[in-house]
């Protein structure tokens, strides 16, 4: 399905039920916003396309599977979950700006998590590498038997939970200094620190 709004496109769920898009969804303009007072789920299978911003501000859950082409995104409340092999795609060029979710040079998109940002999946779920500015006061959960790697300025002050797999800060093969967030950590997997900037010091 393709959304071509003149402004932003808002999906509102005020119930405990699930609104599901069984195929991929493409947004050609504006920002995709999930809103609502319900505790239900908005689920988009096979990826959200179009390189547009995303704001999740409902009290419920937005679940994405497949490979997602997202610009910077914000979780204001509720939960944004990348489920199974749900992931952010690799680098691309959009409107002359290079957006990198991988280990490359370029302008890093921002991720703001004042709600819950969750990567979940069982055996065979994919790893995820991002170069981004991660901030917010919510929660971040990595629950996959794989690796999550973040490079860039991490100002996240919320709770980071590594339920399984590996949470890696800084890529071993990348000279980009990476910041470790100032929040608390619950580690039931493995946390690896490579190139880390704490204040003006490099570790």
Topology, element by element:
Blueprint: E1 2-3, E2 9-12, E3 18-21, E4 25-27, E5 32-35, E6 41-44, E7 48-49, E8 52-56, E9 61-64, E10 67-68, E11 70-75, E12 79-83, E13 87-88, E14 92-94, E15 97-99, E16 110-113, E17 116-120, E18 128-131, E19 133-135, E20 139-151, E21 159-169, E22 178-179, E23 185-187, E24 190-193, E25 196-198, E26 201-202
Parallel strand pairs: 1-4, 2-5, 3-6, 4-7, 5-8, 6-9, 8-11, 9-12, 10-13, 11-16, 12-17, 16-19, 17-20, 18-20, 20-21, 21-23, 21-24, 22-25
Antiparallel strand pairs: 14-15, 25-26
Rg calc: 16 Å
Mean pLDDT: 81
Query: How does the overall form come out from the CA principal axes?
Result: globular
Structural class: mainly beta
Which stretches of 5+ consecutive residues score pLDDT under 50?
92-106, 198-203
Spatial separation of the terminal alpha carbons: 47 Å
SSE order, as H and E?
Answer: EEEEEEEEEEEEEEEEEEEEEEEEEE
Helix content: under 10%
Give structural notes.
The chain is an all-beta fold and 203 residues long. The chain is 0% helix and 53% strand. The protein contains no helices and 26 strands. The chain has strands at 2-3, 9-12, 18-21, 25-27, 32-35, 41-44, 48-49, 52-56, 61-64, 67-68, 70-75, 79-83, 87-88, 92-94, 97-99, 110-113, 116-120, 128-131, 133-135, 139-151, 159-169, 178-179, 185-187, 190-193, 196-198, 201-202. The strands form six sheets. Strands 3, 6, 9, 12, 17, 18, 20, 21, 23 and 24 form a ten-stranded parallel sheet that branches. Strands 2-5-8-11-16-19 form a six-stranded parallel sheet, with no helix packed on it. It is globular and about 45 Å long. 40% of the residues are buried. Residues 92-106 and 198-203 have low confidence and may be disordered.
């Amino acid at each position: 399905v393709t959304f071509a709004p003149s402004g932003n496109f808002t999906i509102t769920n005020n119930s405990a039920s699930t609104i599901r898009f069984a195929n991929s969804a493409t947004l050609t303009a504006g920002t995709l916003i999930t809103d609502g007072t319900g505790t239900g789920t908005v689920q988009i299978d096979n990826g959200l396309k179009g390189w547009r911003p995303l704001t999740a501000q409902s009290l419920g859950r937005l679940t994405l599977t497949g490979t997602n082409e997202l610009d910077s995104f914000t979780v204001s409340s509720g939960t944004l979950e990348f489920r199974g092999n749900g992931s952010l795609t690799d680098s691309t060029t959009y409107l002359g700006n290079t957006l990198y979710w991988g280990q490359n040079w370029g302008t890093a998109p921002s991720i703001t998590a004042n709600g819950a940002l969750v990567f979940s999946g069982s055996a065979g779920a994919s790893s995820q590498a991002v170069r981004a500015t991660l901030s917010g006061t919510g929660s971040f959960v990595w629950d996959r038997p794989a690796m999550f790697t973040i490079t860039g300025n991490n100002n996240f002050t919320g709770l980071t939970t590594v339920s399984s797999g590996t949470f890696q800060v800084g890529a071993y093969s990348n000279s980009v200094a990476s910041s470790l967030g100032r929040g608390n950590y619950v580690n039931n997997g493995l946390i690896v620190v490579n190139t880390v900037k704490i204040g003006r010091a490099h570790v």
